[in-house]
Each structure stands twice: as structure tokens, then as C-alpha cells.
Amino acid sequence: MAGGIKKFVVGAFDDEKVLFPAVKNVRKAGYKIHDVYTPFPIHGLDHAMGIRETSLHTAGFIYAITGTTTALGCISWILTKDWPLNIGGKPHFSLPAWIPITFELTVLFSAVGMVLTFCYLCQLSPFVKKHHFHPRATDDLFIMAIECTDKTNDAEVQNFLQNAGAKEINVQVAETGWWIGTYDKEQKLYADEKGY
Amino acid sequence: MNHNFELPGSYKKWTYGLIIAGVAAVLYGFIMYHPFTHPAHHGQDTDSTRFWAVLLQNSVYWLLVVNAAMFFLCVTTMAMGGWQIAFRRVTEAISSVVPILGVLNLVILMAIVWGGRTDIYHWLDPNVTNPASPSYDSILAGKSGFLNAKFFTIWSVLTVALWWLLGKKMRSMSLETDKAQMDYETGKKWIWKNTVWASLFTVFFGLTVASTIPWLWLMSIDAHWYSTMYSWYTFASTFVSGLSLMALYIIYLKNRGQLEYVTDEHLHDVGKFMFAFSVFWTYLWFSQYMLIWYSNQPEETKYFIERIGTVDKSGPFRGIFFFNLIINFICPLLILMKKSSKRNWTLMTFMAVLIIFGHWIDFYQMVMPGTLHEHAELMPFEFGVAALFIGLIMWGTGNYLSKHSLLAKNHPFLKESMIHHT
Questions:
Q1: Is A97's CB within 8 Å of B296's CB?
Q2: Does residue B97 belong to any structural domain of this protein?
Q3: Which of B294, B312, B333, B422 to mutate to test the interface with A (most CBs of A within 10 A)?
């Protein structure tokens, strides 16, 4: 349990237009947003939260070239060294015929690799029970969870969220992280943002 | 902000410089290559063939490139796209060159067809369809319902005329919106009308660029051979070049302080299109190649043997053939893959120029092997003719850009374009 038990102040918003300034103000006030859960992807929310760009596509590229080399390596070794077959009189080393398989393995490796990496990054896996901050996060509310440290006064945070326009506010204790790696997303401090 | 663009002196200088260089090259060819003589024997006296083959390659390529801009406009309109409105006038400007290049292209095609240039189009020879003649060719006779001078002429003229007229309609509808602000209901009606005309253009584009026109103008050079991929391949080639041309103009105008609402986000999306259609082009290139390589039928492999050659004897176009694949596939794939490179204006300029040149080379290897065989050259004459067409494109595009507002300021979707981000 890498993350351990933590306390969160959770606020539920019902309007995107209220959510964006709230995210900005919460960060500006120096609180740490653990995450914002939304029923659908919201353009620009990641930038507003200061989460760094994902490296998932870099991982995807690496998986893809692994797939390419695996396919070309395997086929060329099998068809030229291990078990050469005469197929329609074509040379043993027949690159054009291998391109489709190479392409497919490239796609397969990158797709499967990226799905697994995505699951890892989101801490998803069979039999892992995730804490839900609010059941309506999958329906019609935007849920913002603010992480509390020893120094945080949670009454103050609740008050702050109230003023920011949250419809429902409560304090929850939850377990974060489930294996190696950190659960916490890398975030920029608001003070480091451009135009601060 | 003022959205009127005055052409800077350097632009005009380049435009006229390129046109003068191009006219000089064509005149040089006209005098030195005796374009109205006919080679007595196959492979001999190739100068006149070279003159027409180079003109054919360039006129078809550049015409399809500028026409691709109108296609882009129409498909994004049909998809109810809003993001392209901020630079929509740039695509309109490029497509406004279609009449100029179209007429030039028709003149060249008619001179080839009615001048009986059997060195370019072998099927023009009346003997191939005459069963009594010793050079009777049953394959070409079988195709003569489609490959004959009359049909070629009628369909080519109709094609260019409709590209022109439908494109003109799209442009004039866009310019009309500058006159007055539209309320919600008029805006809705305008969008509907615009979409209907855009779909008419797209359907006709499908009937021409995506099918018949490449068969007639280019594939019939190798009249015995055919490929079902050919038209798509030509389309992909010219569409990706058209997108690159758009990117170049967007970057140029942005550098001149114009196109206020175009941001990195818009360029990023144009870059994605360039990347995607480079890959799409490769997909067609490979599909065409692999099926023919795999089935290994002599009448099909002939096309590639003329280009790459065989294991024993390498063909005259081997270098260009693979160079083509490197600059049109490997470079865009590796360079344009990263997000940051699609947002880098310098790199995008470089890639756009590379892609336009790459597909020009692609057309070169589509036209030359069937006409000039091993006598093809890549000398100042070839580049000079290309300069003429580039100059004409710059001239026509510049005219449109300087005459009309660079922003379609009353377009109903303008706001969507202003706040666009990927």
C-alpha cells in the first residue's frame, strides 16, 4: 500500500462553468487537488488542473517498434534460417509478404501495451477495489477530491468549496495506491503556471 | 484587426520570377525539343516526347493539388467542421487557381490527344483497334470504348468545367457572407445550402479524381496495365500535397501577422492530416505493389519492372522509386509523429515542402517510365516547367488573398474555430 490512508475533502459540482473557476481557485489557494472525477471527458480540464502531459504515447511508440522488430526478427529467422520453405518460388527473404504481419504485430503490441499501461496508470486491475468518492461521478456530477495533509484545516477547505460553488461537500478517508509506483499524479503548482 | 492582406513585394518578385523562369523553360523546350515532330522509332529522338511528358506530369499534378484544396473545404463542410473556418479563405484562394491550371492542362491534353502523340498515349494509334492491321492489339481494342480521343476530350473538358463551376459556387457563397451579418435562421439556411453544394462537388470529385480522371490522364500511359488502386493512389498523393500547400500558406500568412484566429491548434490539426494522408498514401502504394508482386503475373509486373527492374537488371527509375517511398512515407512518419513537431512552424514548413516535392517526384515516376523509358531526365527543363506551375499557383492564390478579406467573419461556425483546441 504505497499511498496509505489519506483524508480527502470532496466537493460535488453540477456545472462545468462553475467547476473550471473552482479548480483554478482551489489551486491558487494552495490546496492540492487529488483528482476531479467527471462522467465524460472534459476538454482542457487536465490543463486547468496542472497535470503534466501523459507519456502514454511515448510508451505506445516503444511498444510499436518492439512489435515491428519482433515480427521482422521472428519471420525472417523462421523463414530463412530455421525452416525455409519454398512458397510459390519466391525468395526466402520476401519482405513484401511480411509487411502485413509486421504491421499487425506493430498495432497489436502498441494497442495491448497501451491498454495495460493505461490500466496501470489508472490503477485498474481485476480484483482491485477502488474507492468511489461519489456514486454520481459516473452520472451527472463533477467530483473534486482535495487531499488533506497534517497541516490542512478541513473545515476551512469545506468552507472554501462552499464558496466556490460546490453543491455537496463532505470529508472522506480512503486508501490510495495499491502497488509499486505512486498513486499521486504529477501536478504543477499554480505558482509555476504561465501568467501567474 | 484588419483582415485585408496586401501582397508584399517579395511575394510578387518570387511569383513573377518563377513564372518568367517557367516560361523561359517552356520556350526553350518549344524551340529545342521540336514538340511537333514525332519520334520515327520507339526510343529514338525522345526530345519531343520529353517536352509533352514533362508538361503532362506537371499540369496534371499541380491541377490536382490545387483542386484538393476545394475537396478539403467541401469534406470539412459536409462533416459540419468548424475548426477550419479561421483559415478557410486560404483554401478558397488555393482552389481559385483551378480554372487557370485547368485550362492550361486541357490545352496540353488536347495537344497530346489530337496531335496523335502515340509516344505518350499508345492507344491513340488508330492501327491498334484495326483488326486488319499488323499492329492490332486486342487488349487496347477491348478498351477502346473508354480509351478513345472523343471520350477523353469530352470527359476531360466536362471535368475541368465542373471543378471550376462547382468550386466557383462554393467560393462565391463564402464571399457573400462578408456582406451582411446573418441571424440564426439565415445562418442555418446558409449552412444547409453550403452543405448541399459541397456534397455535389464531393460526388463529382469522387467520379473524377477518385476514379476516371487518373485512369484517363495517367494510367492510360501504360494502357495494357491496370490497377484498381491507381486512382485512390493519385488522390492520396495530391490530397496530401494540397494539405501541405495549405499549411505553407497558413504559416506564411501567420508570419506576416495575418490570420488572427489561427493558432498552434489549427496547425496541429493540419499536421495530423498531413501525417494521416502520408500513411494512407503508403497504404495504397503498398497494396498496389504487394498484390502485383505476390501474384507475379507478367502483364501486371511489367509496370514495376519498368521502374525498379528485375533482380538481374536494375531499372532506370529504381533510385527514384525508393527515394519516393522514403520522402513520402518514412520522413512524414518519423518526423510528423510527435505532437511537438506538428506545432513547430519551421518543421511543418520543411515537411510541407518535402511532401510537395516528394509527390511531384511520385508523379514523375508515374509518367516517365511509360513514355520516355530510360531516356527520362531530371534537368533544369523539368524543374523549370514545375516553376511555371508553382508561379501560376502563387499568382492566382495571391490575387484571391489580396482581393478578399482573409477572415470569413460572418460564418456561423467562426466562434467554434476561434476556441478550437485539440
A1: no
A2: yes
A3: B294
- Angle at A31 (CA atoms; ends A27, A33), nearest 5 degrees: 75
- CATH classification at residue A45: 3.30.70.1110
Domain limits for position A49: 4-53+139-183
A44 & A82 share domain: no
Q: Do A96 and B294 touch (CB under 8 A)?
A: yes
Cα-only R_g, chain B:
22
Cα B90 to the center of its chain, rounded Å = 17
A96 close contact with B: CB closer than 8 A: yes
Question: Average of pLDDT values for B107-133?
Answer: 92
Complex ipTM value: 0.81
Q: What is the pTM of this model?
A: 0.90
- Look at residue B179 and tell me if it is in a domain: yes
The upper half-sphere exposure of residue A31, i.e. CA atoms within 13 Å in the direction of its Cβ, equals 27
Distance CA B377, CA A3 (A): 69
Whether residue B403 lies inside any domain: the answer is: no
Q: Among A45-54, B28-37, B87-96, which stretch is predicted with the lowest mean pLDDT?
A: A45-54
Question: Which chain A residues are closer than 8 Å to B421 by Cβ?
Answer: 43-44
Answer with the residue of higher pLDDT: A47 or B21: B21
Cell 514523375: give the residue.
Answer: B364
Q: Do A88 and B296 touch (CB under 8 A)?
A: yes
In the numeric block, which cell numbers belong to residue B208? 473524377
Q: Are residues A18 and A60 in the same domain?
A: no
Answer whether residue B209 shows pLDDT above 50.
yes
Domain of residue B105: give its range. 19-396
Please give the tally of structural domains in chain B: 1
Task: Read off the pLDDT of residues B156-192 as tens digits, 9 standing for 90 and up.
Answer: 999 999 999 999 999 999 999 998 889 999 999 999 9
Quote the CA–CA distance of B86 and B263 in Å, as a whole number: 9
Name every residue in B having a CB less than 8 A away from some CB of A: 286, 289-290, 293-294, 296, 337, 339, 421
Size of interface A-B (CB pairs under 8 A): 15
Per-10-residue mean pLDDT, chain A, length 196 = 73 92 90 90 88 88 97 95 90 92 96 93 76 87 89 87 91 69 60 71
Angle at B330 between CA B328 and CA B336, to 5 degrees: 85
The CA-atom distances, in angstroms, between B244 and each of A119, B52, B88, B248, B262 are: 37, 27, 15, 6, 16
pLDDT at site B191: 95
